């Protein structure tokens, strides 16, 4: 009986290993297809736009002449809009995730909220643009301004931040919570001193993904009336007079790099296509720089936890 069972078990093990190897090869090929496609697109973008990159291109305003056009107002607008987006979405998203996971009662109301938040993460971005058009532009009379754009993109990524925060908190073992309670910690002390430090890395990963999505969005900003041609910069947030801080820039008209690129690629002249490619390189650089800062912060936080 044993002599008949052993070959059968070996046959099953061999078949499972074969299936595992086939799946690994399929997964590797799928990953290579995505990576090669991405590298091909990036190479094509750099080959077209790199010759156009210069200090004059980065520090000049848009122009009707392709050789004189620049992206100064576009990349400054991108940075300001992303600043408002981060300041609005990150604190609210993390606080909402903490409340839903740690404080909210587990009943049908919290289940309904959870389902709606999860579904909102998959809503097309133009829907958020229509919502912002009715609420921020016409309802609150904020106009086509930096704060309107920032709040619109904050609404867009808010569900992602909330879901990521909840999943990060849910992954922390309950033993850490129980140990904190055993030492006399309150619920907030348990969350702030024990749960959040261990979940910060995962939360920051979700924030990186959310901001990377927001920085490349065009549809919601077009919906709220973002301009494609701006030959001036918003007021400086820092002034030489007391109180040395100005918020006038929040109500200034704006444009961003994706909209500037959209305007250029829609023109028939080949020179504007080259400008769009060069602007795409700058947009990739800004995204990578933003992600690098977040990754460095995540690394430092994890190092503190290890110590």
TrEMBL record:
<feature type="transmembrane region" description="Helical">
    <location>
        <begin position="21"/>
        <end position="43"/>
    </location>
</feature>
<feature type="transmembrane region" description="Helical">
    <location>
        <begin position="242"/>
        <end position="262"/>
    </location>
</feature>
<keyword id="KW-1133">Transmembrane helix</keyword>
<dbReference type="InterPro" id="IPR000515">
    <property type="entry name" value="MetI-like"/>
</dbReference>
<feature type="domain" description="ABC transmembrane type-1">
    <location>
        <begin position="75"/>
        <end position="294"/>
    </location>
</feature>
<feature type="transmembrane region" description="Helical">
    <location>
        <begin position="146"/>
        <end position="164"/>
    </location>
</feature>
<feature type="transmembrane region" description="Helical">
    <location>
        <begin position="218"/>
        <end position="235"/>
    </location>
</feature>
<feature type="transmembrane region" description="Helical">
    <location>
        <begin position="274"/>
        <end position="297"/>
    </location>
</feature>
<comment type="similarity">
    <text>Belongs to the binding-protein-dependent transport system permease family. CysTW subfamily.</text>
</comment>
<keyword id="KW-0812">Transmembrane</keyword>
<keyword id="KW-0472">Membrane</keyword>
<dbReference type="Pfam" id="PF00528">
    <property type="entry name" value="BPD_transp_1"/>
</dbReference>
<protein>
    <recommendedName>
        <fullName>Phosphate transport system permease protein PstA</fullName>
    </recommendedName>
</protein>
<keyword id="KW-1003">Cell membrane</keyword>
<feature type="transmembrane region" description="Helical">
    <location>
        <begin position="72"/>
        <end position="100"/>
    </location>
</feature>
<dbReference type="GO" id="GO:0005315">
    <property type="term" value="F:phosphate transmembrane transporter activity"/>
</dbReference>
<dbReference type="GO" id="GO:0035435">
    <property type="term" value="P:phosphate ion transmembrane transport"/>
</dbReference>
<dbReference type="InterPro" id="IPR005672">
    <property type="entry name" value="Phosphate_PstA"/>
</dbReference>
<dbReference type="InterPro" id="IPR035906">
    <property type="entry name" value="MetI-like_sf"/>
</dbReference>
<keyword id="KW-0813">Transport</keyword>
<feature type="transmembrane region" description="Helical">
    <location>
        <begin position="195"/>
        <end position="212"/>
    </location>
</feature>
<feature type="transmembrane region" description="Helical">
    <location>
        <begin position="120"/>
        <end position="140"/>
    </location>
</feature>
<dbReference type="GO" id="GO:0005886">
    <property type="term" value="C:plasma membrane"/>
</dbReference>
């Amino acid at each position: 009986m044993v002599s008949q069972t052993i070959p059968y078990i070996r046959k099953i093990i061999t078949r499972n290993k074969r299936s595992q190897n086939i799946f690994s090869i399929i997964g590797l090929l799928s990953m290579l297809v995505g990576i090669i496609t991405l590298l091909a697109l990036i190479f094509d973008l750099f080959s077209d736009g790199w010759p156009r990159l210069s200090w004059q291109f980065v520090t000049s305003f848009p122009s009707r002449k392709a050789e004189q056009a620049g992206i100064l107002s576009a990349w400054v607008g991108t940075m300001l809009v992303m600043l408002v987006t981060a300041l609005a979405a990150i604190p609210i998203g993390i606080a909402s995730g903490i409340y839903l996971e740690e404080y909210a009662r587990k009943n049908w109301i919290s289940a309904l909220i959870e389902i709606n938040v999860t579904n909102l993460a998959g809503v097309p971005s133009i829907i958020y643009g229509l919502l912002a058009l009715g609420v921020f532009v016409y309802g609150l009379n904020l106009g086509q301004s930096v704060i309107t754009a920032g709040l619109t993109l904050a609404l867009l990524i808010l569900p992602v931040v909330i879901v990521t925060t909840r999943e990060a908190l849910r992954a922390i073992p309950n033993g850490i919570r129980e140990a904190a309670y055993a030492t006399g910690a309150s619920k907030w002390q348990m969350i702030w001193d024990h749960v959040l430090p261990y979940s910060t890395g995962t939360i920051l990963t979700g924030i990186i993904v959310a901001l990377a999505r927001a920085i490349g969005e065009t549809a919601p900003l077009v919906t709220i009336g973002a301009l494609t041609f701006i030959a001036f910069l918003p007021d400086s947030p820092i002034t030489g007079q007391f109180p040395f801080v100005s918020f006038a820039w929040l109500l200034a008209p704006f444009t961003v790099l994706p909209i500037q690129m959209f305007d250029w690629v829609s023109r028939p002249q080949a020179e504007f296509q080259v400008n769009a490619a060069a602007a795409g390189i700058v947009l990739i650089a800004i995204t990578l720089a933003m992600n690098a800062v977040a990754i460095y912060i995540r690394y430092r936080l994890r190092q503190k936890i290890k110590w």
